[in-house]
Each structure stands twice: as C-alpha cells, then as structure tokens.
Amino acid sequence: MLLCIDIGNTNIKFGLFAGDQMCCHWRIATDRNRLADEYAVLLLNLLATSGLGVADVKGVAVSSVVPALTQVFEEIARRYLHQEALMIADGVDLGMRINTEYPKEVGTDLIVNALAARHLYGAPVIVVGFGTATTFSAVSKEGNFEGVAIAPGILTSSDSLFRATATLPQVALAHPVAAIGKNTLQSMRSGIVFGFAELVDGMVRRIRRELGGQARVVATGGLAELIAPESQTIEMVEPNLALIGLRLLYERNRLA
C-alpha cells in the first residue's frame, strides 16, 4: 500500500491507497514542536486502528508546506516504515508546467491539488482550497498550472474578528438562515459564510475570463462542504484532493 502524507499549516492528512483506491485516511493537528518519534507513535497507532502495520506500507509520498516538518516525516519514513519517501521537491517529474514567475514559490499542496483536479475533472479547471488561506489555483486548457490567487482563510479571518471585537462572541460556523441576521450569531454566520461564498464566485468569474474558457470548479479543504452549497460556481467537492494528487505523482515518478 502507498501512504500519502499532506503536511499543511493547520492539519496533516494521511491517506493509504491500495492501487487507485483510498482504503483509509486520517487527519491530525499540525504541531511544529512535535518530534519524529512522537509523530511516528501517532502514525503507527492510526495504522493499528485499521488492522495495519509497517509491513503493509510499500511506498511513501510526502507534500509539505511546513519546512520544519519536512525532514521529520522523511526521517519517519526511513526509520519506522523502512521506505525512502518521495518528497515533492526539485527533480520530481510533475507532469505539469508551472507557468509562474517563480515556480519554486508555489506551494506543493497547490500543485498536488491541481494535478488531482486535472486528472479527475479535466482542464481547464479551478481549484478552490479552503485552508489556512483561501486559494484559487488555475489550470489552463493545456493542463498547465498558470497561477494562484490567495485570500484570507475562513477561520483565520473569523478568529481575527473575534479577537479584535470585544462584543462579538466566537460562533460555530453553520449555514445561515438569511442574509439579514436578526441576532448577533445569525449576523456573523451570514457575513462569514455568505461573504466567503460571494468571494469565491467573484474570483472564479474573473479567473474563468482570464483562462479563456468555462473552467470547471472543484473545492477542497475542511470548510469546503460549508461554503459549496452557498456558492453558484463550485461544482464538485473533493476533501482528499491533495492525497489523490500525491498518489498520481508517486505513480508517475515510480514508473519514470
């Protein structure tokens, strides 16, 4: 089985693939201070909950936007899983041109998301990522990564609102009942959820015009399920897009 690991600023996702099918997946909080041995104990326990062990892992692929943890998981793969991990770095065949001014600045999470979206839905395609930031990755009809727009994340901006405004409480995000809130909780839910849905729709329309075609739109990330029903442009939601992209990248480079 192939273990794919997507290390983000907020969460770390694990996905275990048997062929092209994901048989199990897990998510834990990102902790930059946790040691390799501590992460290894967590990972081995997660495998054990599914009746699996080290011997079942025959390959490892890692995408990381947290430099402090990149080497940590490379060490885990080598010491505990007895595998040399495929790290998304220089020298890896992406199968996609990165048409930005500084390709090395593009987050590996954005690249694997784009690869998976192109594979699943064709091109052109726009990937809306709901994570620490809200990202819009554009893939052209030729299948190349053309660039990205980055906006504040839902939780990031919401937390700033709660901290900066003493009279506004921290609220659990949920679907609003109306745009005009009749109490503080309804008002905040409306502004956050409908506000981000309109942000998404406006950005998608602009990016579609620049791509020159009716690009499909797929959303991913923890809050994609919350925003997608309120959006007029999001067509699909795939929470495990990055893990699927990592699998595709591993297979491409293993066969190269």
TrEMBL record:
Q: Which domain of life is it from?
A: Bacteria
> Any idea of its EC number?
2.7.1.33
What GO molecular function annotation could you give as one example from this UniProt entry?
pantothenate kinase activity
Q: Which residues bind ATP?
A: D6, I7, G8, N9, T10, N11, I12, K13, T132
**What are the binding positions for substrate in this chain?**
G107, T108, D109, L110, T184
| Active site positions, chain numbering | D109
Cofactor or coenzyme needed = K(+); NH4(+)
Q: Give any Gene Ontology cellular component.
A: cytoplasm
Which keywords does the record carry? ATP-binding, Coenzyme A biosynthesis, Cytoplasm, Kinase, Nucleotide-binding, Potassium, Transferase
Cofactor binding description:
A monovalent cation. Ammonium or potassium.
Q: Which reaction does it catalyse?
A: (R)-pantothenate + ATP = (R)-4'-phosphopantothenate + ADP + H(+)
Question: Can you supply a Gene Ontology BP term from the record?
Answer: coenzyme A biosynthetic process
Family annotation (InterPro entries): ATPase_NBD (IPR043129), Type_III_PanK (IPR004619)
Which pathway is recorded for this entry?
Cofactor biosynthesis; coenzyme A biosynthesis; CoA from (R)-pantothenate: step 1/5
Subcellular location per the Swiss-Prot or TrEMBL entry: Cytoplasm
The family database entries (HAMAP family) matched by this protein are listed as: Pantothen_kinase_3 (MF_01274)
Q: How does it assemble?
A: Homodimer.
Q: What does this protein do?
A: Catalyzes the phosphorylation of pantothenate (Pan), the first step in CoA biosynthesis.
So what family is this one in?
Belongs to the type III pantothenate kinase family.
What's this protein's name? Type III pantothenate kinase
User: Which species is this UniProt entry from?
Assistant: Bellilinea caldifistulae
The gene name on file is coaX
